[in-house]
Design brief:
The protein is an all-alpha fold. The chain has three helices and no strands. The mean pLDDT is 93.
Length: 62
Amino acid sequence: MQTAVSEVKELLNRLPEESSYEDIQYYLYVIAKIQQGLALAESEGGIPHAEVEKQFAQWLSD
């Protein structure tokens, strides 16, 4: 598992040099939200992809 510092370093290395502070903040926000979602899915369970597709298909047909 990577530390937060190493993840930020990797992110900074991938971003273009002209990235603004706002760009960097946005990417950090997105990464944090994804990690929170993955942790929530792991702790509380999730819905299998096939089930989500089935539910979406039902919603679209209603």
